[in-house]
Model the fold of this input.
Amino acid sequence: MRSLRMAPPLPLIFLLMIVGAFGTEWSVKYNQQEICALKGSTVFINGTYTHPEHLTVRAAFWYIDPVKGVKLTDLSKDPDYSGRVEYFTDEQKHFSLKLSDVMKKDEHQYCFRIIAKVDKQKWTGKPGVRLRVTELHVETPEEVTEGETADLTCKTTCSLTDPTFIWYKNGRPLTTKTIKNNQLHLQTVSSEDAGSYSCAVRGYQHLSSTAHNLRVRYPPKNISVSISPSGGIVEGSSLTLTCSSDANPPVKNYTWFKEGGTSPVGSGQNCSIINITADHTGLYHCEAQNEHGAQNGTVMVTVKSQSLYAVWIAVGGNADPNAKDDTYTALQPTARSSDNVYHTLAAVQSSSPDDTYTALDPQSSSPEYHTLAIDSPETNDDVKPYCLSE
Ligand SMILES: *[C@@H]1O[C@H](CO)[C@@H](O)[C@H](O)[C@H]1NC(C)=O
Ligand SMILES: *[C@@H]1O[C@H](CO)[C@@H](O)[C@H](O)[C@H]1NC(C)=O
Done:
């Protein structure tokens, strides 16, 4: 009543006109002006109302986007909302609209309207509550390089009320990483961080975002070198060394070295040696390289001499080599020094297991391999082990 002395605006005059006999006025108060809801969730639009005390409420309903001169449609009768709306009011004059399975097209202004029994007096809470609907969307850098930091963001198009964000990697909740607000912080990215990321809000885990892939670039790792055929390697046969390594982007160059040599003996993922001789015995290194770095793998190639077996049979299984120097020379036309060749072969026969190659960690080659490498005739300038790339 205190406003009477000032020139009141028109709506206020209207309000004063309908003030009830006991002083209570019509009013509709919403708890929020704007609500941000996750697509697919259930949302409540709540508030309280008052009405002149001598009146009783006959009906209350909700409608959207009031337009002057257009008849108001009760939301519960709107086919777009069919089966998705429920109205609640209670003795304390609380009211709520429960809207389930919220959709993007539900983004409207929602107004509550009360109609009294007497004289069809009515009241509408305008401008109502603005409903916004969002999905969750993961924003990541397309690609990060190992060692860098990366921030993944769970984006919404409106501000949810006090959301707690949850992150998933390949479908499993992430608990070990730093999550701050809607961001997942990867401090030092490793190749293991590559994967498919999605996010959700606690309480709405079933409404998670679509997954987004994070690619990590890294130098070659987990290198391995294999030999085929895998049995004993016999002079005159051929063999293929294959280098494989995990890298992103994939390995660009493979380079092959033979221990003791400084220049490469081949390139490409495979290194094929045809017509093997004992001179091919030794350690072979494969270097795998992409633009982020390189890694080495090593394999031992041990060649068994068929001729040596033949000699042993010929001399009745006598393995004492000192007596038969000339024979070895005759059977080893490629060798410059029969002694040298002999030592290599003897060492192979006596110390190597049946499968005569072993993939080696470069740091862990055992002394017996060093012995072999030293004894082998590769230091001879005329020996050029070669390797055909496929
Ligand atoms: C809104 O009202 C409903 C009951 O009508 C209640 O379950 C819900 O918790 C209320 N929500 C808020 C945000 O007050
Ligand atoms: C390398 O191998 C290890 C052990 O097998 C494995 O845990 C790791 O994921 C591999 N790394 C890559 C980048 O594949």
Remarks:
- The two ends are 97 Å apart (CA to CA).
